[in-house]
Amino acid sequence: MKSICCKVAAFSLLTLIISINASAQKKVPGKIWSAEKANKWYAGYRWMSGADFIPSTAINQLEMWQADTFDATTIDRELGYAEGIGFNTMRVFLYSLAWQQDKAGFKKRINQYLAIADKHHIKTMFVFFDDCWNAGANIGKQPAPKTGIHNSGWLQDPGNPGQEVMLEAYVTDILRTFKNDRRILLWDLYNEPGNSNKKDASMDLLVKVFGWARAVNPSQPLSAGLWDWSFEKLNTYQALNSDVITYHDYTEEPSHRKTIQLLKTHSKPLICTEYMARTRGSRFETVMPMLKKENVGALNWGFVMGKTNTIYAWDNPIPDGSEPKEWFHDIFRKDGTAYKPEEVEIIKKLNGK
User: Fold this and answer.
1) For residue 147, how many other CB atoms are within 10 A of its CB?
2) Which one, of 353, 325, 344, 336, lies nearest residue 284 by Cα?
3) In whole angstroms, how far apart are CA 298 and each of 142, 200, 246, 272, 295?
4) Given CB 3.0 to 4.6 Å as the disulfide criterion, which of 154, 236, 253, 282 pairs with 286?
5) Which percentage of the chain shows pLDDT scores above 90?
6) How does pLDDT run across 28-58, given as a tens digit for each residue?
7) Right CATH for 10-20+34-350 from 3.10.20.30, 3.20.20.80, 3.40.50.2000, 3.50.50.60
């Protein structure tokens, strides 16, 4: 997702860490994992690598999950591409309106997705809420992609205000249903809170979703990824209440490495749940080896080029829809051909394939 602050200042992060350490009394009720428990959990898995996944036939989360457009065939094929290069983890966005529309069917499709992923030896990190891109979601047929525009149909969740009762029921139902499912690696409760110029207005829902999740107490860890280092209040709350530290970083390797060294002061495992934007200098050949060396989980944004149009950069549309000189995100074409075969070889080597 688009990050507002792409260059991390060490001073700002140190300020964040000091603020977090001084704010222990602000923890939500419930059993936040200790560093010891989190590190023991992390040690039980081989190095996590993968991508943020949506099938190439879906423009957004609703098109992925609604019954009429849930595309198990494409999901199976594309997760096969992931298995082939050694990816073992995928981050997947759920959607509240898909649950509201068809609760039993939505959970059945989640289970179907998990069965496909498990067949390909892939664990899943599910995301609940999201402040990125378009507000005002509607169930039913989704819009066609806008030519040459990055994520033209991606949806904020919740996409409409005033749904707290429904949202609590949604989160609680999904967590209770899958709280002990070994196929689920982690629950990412809120993607980029404060994005779309919401800033601290997202704090209320962030606090509530952690409270709802702690009340269920799933066996999997909870997290909400750090992403904009200027959001001191949000960052403090996210880091303090996450069982495992997740974060986004689309900067070049030296800057990204500094972020890791500062986040390691929490003494908890780190998983980078978004990176890799070629034209911004965040590349597989430089960043991914560093993440493995630092034992930081590595999930890049974008997998198979498709209706999300993430081969195009955030702020650089191409009106005629021609391919950009260099893809922004994504690894494969729809037929499984690698955009850059040399990148795939690097990924496979790092994953022991």
Assistant:
1) 14
2) 344
3) 31, 28, 10, 5, 9
4) 253
5) 90
6) 456 999 999 999 999 999 999 999 999 999 9
7) 3.20.20.80
Residue 288 has what pLDDT?
A: 98
**Distances, alpha carbon 210 to alpha carbons 36, 107, 167, 168, 236, in Å:** 21, 21, 12, 11, 14
pLDDT digits (tens, 9 = 90+) for 303-349: 999 999 999 999 999 999 999 999 999 999 999 999 999 999 999 99
Helix (H, G, I), strand (E, B) or coil at 31: coil
Q: What is the DSSP letter of 192?
A: S
Which two tokens mark 134? Answer: 């378009």
Question: Where do the H-state alpha helices sit in the chain?
Answer: 10-21, 35-43, 61-65, 72-84, 96-101, 103-119, 164-178, 203-216, 232-241, 253-263, 284-293, 341-350
Residue 114's identity, in one-letter code, is: L
What is the pTM assigned to this prediction? 0.94
DSSP string, 274-323: E--BGGGTB-HHHHHHHHHHTT-EEEEE--B-STT-TTSBTTB--TT-PP
- Point out the residues of the chain with pLDDT beneath 70: 2-30
CA distances from 17 to 127, 271, 275 (A): 25, 17, 22
Residue 56 near residue 126 (C-beta atoms within 8 A): no
Task: Give residue 341's identity as a one-letter amino acid code.
Answer: P
Tokens 């037929």 -> residue: 335
Single out the residue of 313, 268, 334 nearest to residue 295, CA to CA.
268
